[in-house]
Design brief:
Helices cover 78% and strands 0% of the residues. It is an all-alpha fold and 171 residues long. α2 crosses α3, α2 runs parallel beside α4 and α3 packs parallel to α6.
């Protein structure tokens, strides 16, 4: 029996997944954080935590694959700015998603020894953005160039270098 057959509120799970997607896309959603937290908590309580967790991983992966394409397509002159902005947007979304799924972290994640929500999402960032061959090469060369300029006394964007270092999440 699948989740759809087992629970008449299956559409609520899709609403949570849609809301997570909307958070990443900054397009808003029709449910409050409290409603989303209650709904996701109900699924975890009803032993469907795996469905919520795997949905989060799938949505995050798909979103970050698109982010990677955007960063890869950015011009060299604004590569760090693009990467930094995407990192800040991701972290903002992650805070909101973490609030919605905090009950899942406290129960399902702990009981099943899964990776906590914020950690798994940041690992997906690392795997899809930082470890992307195109981005990794550009990031390394851009940071080395910024260091070279700084050592030569030429103004470098220290703020962006700092954010790009923060975005280099190590598992």
């Amino acid at each position: 029996m699948n989740l759809e057959e087992a629970d008449p509120d299956y559409s609520d799970l899709k609403r949570v997944e849609h809301a997570i997607d909307a958070i990443y896309d900054k397009s808003g959603n029709d449910l409050t954080s409290e409603e989303l937290s209650r709904i996701s908590g109900k699924f975890v309580q009803d032993f469907f935590g795996e469905s919520v967790y795997s949905g989060l991983v799938s949505i995050t992966t798909l979103h970050l694959e698109n982010v990677a394409k955007s960063v890869e397509a950015s011009e060299d002159s604004n590569f760090l700015e693009e990467l930094s902005q995407k990192w800040m947007d991701f972290n903002t979304a992650l805070v909101e998603i973490g609030q919605i799924l905090k009950g899942m972290d406290l129960t399902f994640v702990r009981n099943t020894r899964k990776t906590p929500v914020h950690v798994v999402c940041r690992n997906i960032w690392r795997d899809n953005i930082i470890n992307s061959s195109n981005i990794a090469i550009r990031l390394k060369s851009t940071l080395l160039e910024a260091v070279r300029k700084e050592r030569a006394g030429i103004h470098a964007a220290k703020f962006l270098v700092r954010h790009s270092e923060d975005a280099d999440v190590h598992g």
